[in-house]
Design goal:
By secondary structure, the chain is an alpha/beta fold. It has a domain at 41-60 and 90-216: HAD superfamily/HAD-like (Rossmann fold), CATH 3.40.50.1000. The chain has helices spanning 2-10, 16-19, 44-48, 93-101, 114-124, 192-206, 209-216; strands at residues 31-32, 51-54, 61-64, 72-77, 82-89, 105-109, 133-135, 141-143, 146-148, 161-165, 178-180. The strands form 3 sheets. A 5-stranded parallel beta sheet has the order 7-6-2-10-11, with no helix packed on it. The longest helix is centred in the C-terminal third of the chain and has 15 residues, at 192-206. The protein is globular.
């Protein structure tokens, strides 16, 4: 009961790359787009800054419908009932949001339902200073029942878009735009978000994710860098 409620709220995506046999040739995926119009409006920020897309669950927070140690609890209306969701915040999440919002146009893109994710974002960014756009499950691309985040629908040049997400399958339509990060559940000593900063600062400077990735490949990886 509890597990199914959480899946309904968050729609955790499996890592298909890790589970598919290497010698299997898959049929072309069936895409179901909700709209052909750009998902994001053009703004003053979009003219001068690259776009940083951020995942929510296991990237910035971890949520559970089981009562576990948590920072905040929300009641989420599920129609006939209200479900309590217990949320932990990844270490340095707020500092990370503050840092990237100074250099990027920031969009939160989650496969979770808006009824849940909006409350988390209102808690993380109550003044709406750091996250400029919010995208939810309804904005995802349904590929054979899996919710993917299609960067080509955002209305931005792809070389000026990067997505930080713990699930590679979420950005599998544009894997070269992905900046991987380890999944977070409850480690209080985690510093992975801060390790992202040097790479993202370079990307903000050159405004080309492909050039940034090529330049840093071999000498820097966001998941294993050290901040001095």
């Amino acid at each position: 009961m509890h597990a199914s409620q959480l899946r309904h709220l968050r729609s955790t995506t499996p890592n298909a790359a890790a589970t598919a046999p290497s010698n299997t040739v898959a049929a072309p995926p069936v895409k179901h787009h909700r709209s052909v119009a750009p998902l994001l409006p053009m703004t003053l920020l979009s003219k001068t800054r690259p776009l940083l897309v951020l995942d929510l669950d296991e990237t910035l927070v971890h949520a559970s419908v089981e009562k576990v140690p948590h920072e905040v609890c929300f009641g989420v209306n599920m129609g006939a009932q209200t479900v309590n969701v217990y949320v932990k915040i990844r270490p340095f999440a707020r500092e990370f949001l503050k840092a990237v919002s100074a250099q990027f146009e920031v969009a939160m893109f989650t496969a979770s339902l808006a009824a849940y994710a909006d409350q988390v974002l209102d808690y993380l960014d109550p003044a709406k200073m750091y996250v400029h756009h919010r995208l939810f499950r309804s904005h995802c691309t349904n590929v054979d029942g899996v919710f993917l985040k299609d960067m080509s629908l955002l209305g931005r040049s792809l070389e000026r878009v990067a997505i930080v997400d713990n699930s590679p399958i979420a950005y599998s339509l544009q894997p070269e735009n992905g900046v991987p990060i380890s999944s977070w559940f409850d480690d209080p000593s985690d510093t992975e978000l801060m390790k992202m900063i040097p790479f993202l600062e370079f990307f903000a400077q050159v405004q080309d994710i492909y050039r940034a990735t090529k330049t840093f490949r071999g000498k820097f990886h966001p998941m294993h860098a050290s901040v001095h």
